[in-house]
Each structure stands twice: as C-alpha cells, then as structure tokens.
Amino acid sequence: MMRSREKSFVVKIRFLMCEGVFFYFPQRDSRYVKLPKFVRGCLTTSQHTPSFHHSSFMSGKRKLVVLFGANGYVGRAIAKEFVRRGTVELTAISRSGVPPPNEEGKNGKSSSSSWTDKIKWVAADSTKPDTYAEHLQGASCIVTSIGVLPFGISKEDCYKGNADTNIIPAKTAQKVHGLNRFVAVGASLGVAGALVPGAKPYIEGKMAVENFAKNEFVRGGNNDHTNARSNDSNSNSNSASPPTTPPLAVVVKPGGVSGTKRVGENLNLPLWMLMDPVTMVMKRLGKFGMENSPVRVERVAKAVVNAALSDDEARFSSGGYVEISNEELLTNPKYDF
Prior knowledge:
about 325 residues; alpha/beta; Rossmann fold; disordered N terminus
C-alpha cells in the first residue's frame, strides 16, 4: 500500500496540474462593453472573426458551438479538436477575445495555416451575460472550460472562478435561447481536498457546477422558452413548432492534465515528461490510481467534443446527466490520439 507521505505527494502534483486552464480575475476590464438590447445580434465584440464563419453558419450546414475558456490549457486543446473535426462553427469566448499564440508564436496574427483563424473570437466576461448573450443565439451546445486554482486569491474569488464562471453562461443559454446541451470541464478531486491547503473553495466551486448540471440544467429544458416564443409570434396555429429534445448536461472530470502547455508566445512546457510516467504507475494502483492519475489533454478534448456533438450514443441522445470519469478518459478507445 502507498505510504501516506507518498500518496500526499502524488495527489498534490495531480491537483496543481489539474487546471492551469482559464484564469478568472475579478478586476473590472474596460474592454467589456454591455451592448444595448436593440443592437444584440447586429454587432460583434471581436475583430477576430473569419469571414467564412458567417457564410457557412447561415447556410445551415454546420452546428454552432460556443466555448468559454478557449485561451486556457485545456480549452485550447478543446478548440483545436473542434477545428480538427471540421463539422461545426465554433465561437470562442474569453476575457481578451484574442486568439492564443499559434504554433509559430504569432499571437493574434492571422495565418492561413493557423487553427485559430477558423474560430470566431469574442471578448466577454462569463459572469456578465450582457457581454455575450447575442453570441449564444442559434447554438446547439455550450462548453465551459474555466477554472482557477486556490492560490493567491480570496476564497470568494476562487469559488466564483470555478462555479459562477461556468454556471452563468449555461443558465443564460438555456433560459434565454432554449439551448439544451451543456458540457463542462470539471475535475476528479479524489482525496485532494483533504491534503491540499486552501482547496475547499475550489472543490465547492467544482461541485456547484456538477450540482447545477444534474439538478437544474437537466430539469430546465426549453419548453418555457419555446412556449414564450410561440406566444409572442404572429404565426398561425397550423405552423409546426420546433422539435424539442431532452436537456443534456455532461461533466468531464479529469485528474491532472498532462501534455504540452504553451506559456507565453514561444515557450512550450512539456508537462508530459513528469506526468506520463506518473500515469503509468498510478494505473497499477486500482481504483485510487485511476481516479487520481494524470490524463493527456488530448483525451480530455476528445471526450468534451464527443459529448458536445454525439447523437449516436444512447447516453447522449436520451438527455439527462452524464459524468465522464477520469478512468473513462484513460481507457475509452474513442479518446485515443
């Protein structure tokens, strides 16, 4: 059996590497502009909008997915996987609205070979729906990959950075636009809460997202939205109502996230050199090991995108709450890369 000191070290390493995703800062940013209601749907808050996005979306050939936190470590991998699939229009919402550095290290500069050019980038604050509500119109799924570690910030900001930043966008999408598919990146907390100082608000924030997904989002549906839209319209009684599908909420719960993390414009941090060997050891420790083992960021991204787009798996097509565990992330061949 693993000695307590060794267990503590492994869990702390897993927890520290868990997120590094999208850092939430409570300070006000003057770049966020609240758009008046009468101009919503007519303006965009970002200049990084490829022209093909509008033409292909209006043709109705692709689903529209909105991703919050696309500038983070995990969020970037998710965005790249959506682009690789080539079957959706992706709107990426972050505080800056600026694409992350591409492989050539040209931050915000267009390149015909850059995956960032195939995404519509929007500057907004996930806790302020007025800054992004217009961009949720017509979306088939909302994905959130936002989190903040419990270091150097207050307990309140840590909680909000893990809870409100994920819950508010999903709640807005469902209540305002009738969206009924929500995928969130959570965390496999394991025993980290007992071993990592100051982890309580982080854990509570992650649990709040799970509770919202399973107890509120899946029960909200879009019937109220559809009825309100129908009552306000001038269509005759013979016109067909849009079909409704049961709401689906999926929480993907990785342990430590291994891979190559981009730091700044020119530095690639090979987390996998430390974490992949840990994975090989942890896999041999049974359920505890599978729950706390690091997992490659590519596998997390594939799981998120599959949950956002898949209609052929019964667990996704029938609605309800689905939890993708760290063990599934490690073993499901669908997530191989």
